[in-house]
Amino acid sequence: MRGGTVTGSRSLHDPHSVALLSKGAGRIVSPYGLTDWPGALELLGTNGPADSIRRVRQAEAPHLRRPRCPNP
Fold it and tell me: Which DSSP helix (H) or strand (E) runs through 64?
């Protein structure tokens, strides 16, 4: 989803966990599909935010590698 906002709702009767993620951190779920939303919450709770960000950066790396153009 390009330029969109991910929203959802759940009953607050029995909340288990919640996280507020930046657009970049949310990429762990979409578009990279490294986990689903429950899995993302589990990763945050178990390994902390640094691990989630590391995983997103690893997934981004191949997309960022482009041949360099010589300076004119």
Answer: helix 49-64
Which residue in 14, 39, 13 sits closest to 28, CA to CA?
39
CA distances from 47 to 18, 32, 36, 51 (A): 15, 19, 16, 6
| Contact of 19 with 29, CB cutoff 8 Å | no
**Going by C-beta distance under 8 Å and a sequence separation of 6 or more, which residues neighbour residue 58?**
none
Share of the chain above pLDDT 70, in %: 74
What are the pLDDT digits (tens) for 24-54?
Answer: 999 999 999 999 988 999 999 999 999 999 9
Tokens encoding 55: 């995983």
Structural domain boundaries of the chain?
Answer: 25-64
